[in-house]
Amino acid sequence: MTEPSFHMTPDEFRRHGAEVVEWVARYMETVEEHPVLSPVAPGDIRASLPAHPPQRPEPFEDVLADIEALILPGVTHWQSPNWFAYFPANSSGPSVLGELLAAGLGVQGMLWATSPACTELETHVLDWMLELLGLPDRFRSDGPGGGVIEDSASSATLCALLAARRRGRDAGAELGDLVAYASAHTHSSLEKAARVAGLGADQVRVVAVDETYAMVPGALATLVAEDRAAGRVPFFCCATVGTTSSLAVDPVAALADVCVAAGVWIHVDGAMAGSAAVCSELRWVNDGLDRVDSYAVNPHKWLFTNFDCTCFWVADRGALLAALSILPEYLRNEASASGAVIDYRDWQVPLGRRFRALKLWFVIRHYGAEGLAHHVRRHVELARQFAAWVEADARFELAAPPRLGLVCLRHVGGDEVNQWLLDSINASGEQYLTHTRLDDRLVIRVSVGQTHTEERHVRALWDHLACLADAS
Asked: Which letter does DSSP use for residue 400 in this model?
């Protein structure tokens, strides 16, 4: 008797794959019906799962049924059009299909030689993204710079900082003398990157911000001068185009003036707001990028490409490769030795690489520049409408200048009322909001940018807030 293989046969995969695609399509159609924020308590999901793994194979139908019965109740629905929390983490049909193909191919793209298409498509798509966003040619792959897809903007920040550290050490600086700069509104990944790179807390200077929460170039210049006078070595500055709290935009051009003059690597985190540049009228988000050392933007936030997918560019890849290249014997090959190919393992911390470019390629080809701009532009219009409703209601106030798809607001009744409003909205399951603190006051954030959010969803959120304000 032939022993069972236990593998899923191609015919079984074909049948079950169709069932999974149908499940996902049905989820896309009905996601709006689910409570946006999962109502489960800590431990509920684990308590519903068997204590031990199955000894014998189980029917695929049972597995898919448990997705519905056990997993879905514990999902917070980032793909709901009533998602207004944090920032969007958008998906779309073409992106999901691209991800499926990448998983099916099972490529490990650490070297050009391990799958040339994985590397060359990524290089090409990153150049396409330059064109779509109107970014400077200094980041093109056919010059000294180039782009790579990282898993997240946090990894991009770490890689930029490591490249800057290498450049500083090559110039003779001691690790303990290096100093980095950021504002209090810079993403927390900068602090984590500094820790990973071996920098102490006192080696990251916090630069003052103005009334719009943007970094002040004069304050940066003062800190750089003070550190130099004290014998320290300024080496890295992280500017932000679209901070997490308020979508504040640091004045990149003026900050670049300071950094270029001082020999400081300037990295720009455009994770969310950078995608706005697909709209020609919003390309002010690119101001100053012609002089920075590195830049990152997340298609997995606002360009309908499912997580994870961060585009990261450097103007000169030499320092990045010097910081991250390690060549053990088992990775040596003729193509790499020729110098004619890119090995993206040298552009990131891990060795292994997924075929992320495939889903981004699918998205760009499906939507085209016109489709991407259409949806981003519409989200910005909806956010402006929401901000207008806030300004017209004496019970509320704008807590920061509304920018692109983000509106920061407060009820004039104070923190306690705002916390109650936030908790009430989220407990209802109808929408999901998150908060921040600006000038030590609780602020409600409304992020408009989920793939399928329409005017009726934004209107329903405002009506909900206004109704609760009547009851507060």
From this structure: S
pLDDT tier at 1 (50, 70, 90 boundaries)?
A: low
* Global pTM value: 0.94
Percent of the chain with pLDDT over 90: 92
- Per-residue exposure over 231-262, b if at least 16 CB sit within 10 Å of its own CB, e if not: ebbbbbbbbbbbbbbbbbbbbbebbbbbbeeb
- pLDDT-derived band at 4 (thresholds 50, 70, 90) equals confident
What pLDDT sits at residue 339?
Answer: 87
With residue 68 as reference, give the H or E element that holds it: none
Strand partners, 181: 205, 237
User: What region, left, alpha or beta, does residue 61 occupy, with left being phi > 0 and alpha being psi -120 to 50 degrees?
Assistant: alpha
Q: How many residues does the chain have?
A: 472
265/180 Cα distance (integer angstroms): 9
User: Helix or strand or coil: residue 79?
Assistant: coil
Both tokens of 342, joined, read 């890119």
CA distance 213 to 439: 9
Provide the CA 450 distance to its chain's centre, in angstroms: 14
Q: Is the pLDDT of residue 2 over 80?
A: no
Q: Contact, 140 vs 146, CB < 8 A?
A: yes
List phi, psi (to 5°) of 209: -120, 165
- Name residue 101's amino acid: L
In the chain, what are the domains?
A: 10-33+38-75 (1.20.1340.10), 107-354 (3.40.640.10), 363-471 (3.90.1150.10)
- Residues in a beta bridge with 441: 438
> Taking a C-beta distance cutoff of 8 angstroms, is the pair 202, 257 a contact?
no
36 with 433: CB under 8 angstroms? no
Distance CA 356, CA 371 (A): 21
Cis peptide before 250 (omega within 30 of 0): no
Lowest mean pLDDT among 246-250, 333-337, 425-429, 454-458: 333-337
> Rounded mean pLDDT of 316-326?
93
End-to-end C-alpha distance for the chain, whole angstroms: 74
Helix (H, G, I), strand (E, B) or coil at 339: coil
